[in-house]
Design goal:
CATH architecture of one domain: Alpha-Beta Barrel
Strand content: 15-25%
Helix content: 25-40%
CATH superfamily of one domain: Aldolase class I
Radius of gyration: 24 Å
CATH class of one domain: Alpha Beta
Structural class: alpha/beta
Shape: globular
Order of helices and strands: EEEEHHEEHEHEHEHHEHEHHEEEHEEHHH
CATH topology of one domain: TIM Barrel
Bound molecules: iron/sulfur cluster
Number of helices: 14
Number of strands: 16
Length: 442
């Protein structure tokens, strides 16, 4: 396996930080120590002072080679099912813009997908397989299908002798029967919710224009009280980003058992092109994120998806690892956001379909091979970025679309990613002995 010693110099208001992402190592150094590191890396002569200053870094392993991550593709043991593309909400920034569509997945398709991952899990000796419900619509809008597929996942689990894990991403607008089902059958749930009554009603209205807050609030309260594992996903627009600390305070006060508050800047696509909802400025997002994080004091984890210093990988998501997402029309896509053939990007990301004649999924190996290349090691634009093994080139659908990975040119998200990843590195620095005052020698 190829290995490498990769070091970056990242700067903040206190000066330079030497950062080895593959080893999760970081150290605050002064400029002369950074110059000594550079001389060592480029094989230039070292003075006695250089050697003294490098000794501790060597002992900590900064200069050791580390195996590079690989993009491991294997038969899927997780399926994400999109039961329907219909939805009961009209969120102003929805990427899918579900309105007139009303496809419902044929039961046969859902069952075949579940069988496929259950069988793979058995072959690969996994202790579980995962069935997730998601959508370019609201999964619980096709509730009886969701019920049938939950039951079937357990039947398949019994057949192969492995337990299924069920999870759902939902807008949380559901009746009591649906809520009871969610609590009884699902391991975990992610609820899309914009965080305050005013924002939720404005940004995520019901199809008839009325407010959705009372329904989602009730769902979140029930999940919280039931001790269920759940997270909240909020989208921030240019007009709502300033409210992030208020959103965090509201969530903490009302749903204290929420494990994760996941916030993302709205992306200008889908319905936002009609409603005019804009992506927030990176500076505002960063500043409000920090304020919200301080307010939450770790009681609820605040997450922006691309800032993840703990992660080491070549890919931001499973888009280049045969992510197995099955749409209500029986298409197999690698991307949650590219799920119908009318999307111009479908020719890359939709890589198969269910064949009712053959009663199986027929996949396109050429497309799979093309998708496997969407990894950060093929993105020269990310080569010198200290976040490259963490953010891993970010979301391919948004940043590349149909472009080859070599054309990756970053986005407004990179500024947020770098600032928030640096914050994570700074937090880890205070825990490392090398960075205690007495050792900050160089
Ligand atoms: S490519 Fe982007 S939009 Fe698609 S699944 Fe991955 S993160 Fe989501
Ligand atoms: S350049 Fe942007 S997308 Fe690439 S690794 Fe850095 S932050 Fe991520």
């Amino acid at each position: 396996m190829p290995s490498k010693c990769e070091l970056f110099v990242v700067r903040d208001e206190k000066g330079p930080i030497l950062y080895a992402p593959l080893k999760h190592l970081s150290a605050r150094l002064n400029e002369s120590a950074i110059a000594a590191v550079s001389r060592r890396l480029y094989g230039k002569p070292l003075s006695e002072e250089d050697r003294d200053c490098l000794r501790l870094l060597e002992e900590c392993g900064f200069f050791e080679e580390t195996e590079l991550p690989v993009n491991q593709v294997q038969a899927p043991v997780q399926v994400t099912l999109f039961p329907t593309d219909g939805c009961n909400l009209r969120c102003r920034y929805c990427y899918a813009g579900a309105e007139k569509r009303r496809h419902v997945m044929p039961l046969e398709v859902g069952k075949a997908a579940i069988d496929l991952v259950a069988d793979n899990a058995k072959k690969l000796n996994y202790s579980d397989f995962v069935v997730s419900f998601h959508g370019n619509g609201e999964p619980f809008f096709a509730f009886s299908l969701v019920q049938d597929l939950c039951r079937y996942a357990h039947e398949a689990g019994e057949r192969v002798g492995i337990k299924p894990k069920l999870s759902a991403a939902t807008n949380g607008v559901m009746n009591d029967e649906q809520l009871d089902w969610l609590i009884a059958w699902f391991e975990s749930a992610n609820i899309s919710f914009d965080g305050t009554e005013e924002l939720q009603n404005r940004q995520r209205p019901m199809a008839d224009g009325s407010g959705s807050f009372p329904y989602v609030h009730k769902t979140l309260k029930r999940l919280n009280d039931a001790g269920k594992s759940f997270g909240i996903r909020s989208t921030l627009t240019a007009s709502s980003v300033e409210e992030l600390p208020k959103i965090a305070a509201f969530v903490l006060e009302n749903y204290p058992r929420c494990s994760t508050l996941h916030v993302e800047p709205a992306w200008e696509a889908g319905r936002s092109l009609v409603t005019g909802e804009r992506t927030p400025e990176a500076e505002s997002f960063i500043q409000k994120f920090i304020e919200a994080e301080e307010l939450l004091q770790g009681k609820i984890r605040l997450v922006f998806s691309a800032a993840r210093a703990e992660n080491i990988s070549l890919a931001f998501c499973a888009v280049c690892r045969d992510s197995f997402v099955v749409t209500s029309e029986g298409l197999v896509t690698s991307c949650y956001e590219i799920c119908e053939m009318s999307d111009p990007r479908a020719c890359r990301y939709v890589y198969g379909a269910y064949s009712p004649e053959e009663k199986r999924f027929v996949l396109d190996d050429e497309k799979r091979a093309d998708l496997h290349r969407l990894t950060v090691d093929n993105m020269p634009g990310c080569r010198d970025c200290f976040c490259k093994y963490h953010c891993s080139g970010d979301c391919a659908a948004k940043l590349l679309g149909l472009n080859p990975p070599e054309k990756h040119a970053g986005s407004v998200r990179c500024q947020i990613t770098r600032a928030l990843t640096l914050r994570q590195i700074q937090a880890s620095l205070s825990k490392e002995p090398l960075n205690e005052e007495e050792n900050n020698h160089a």
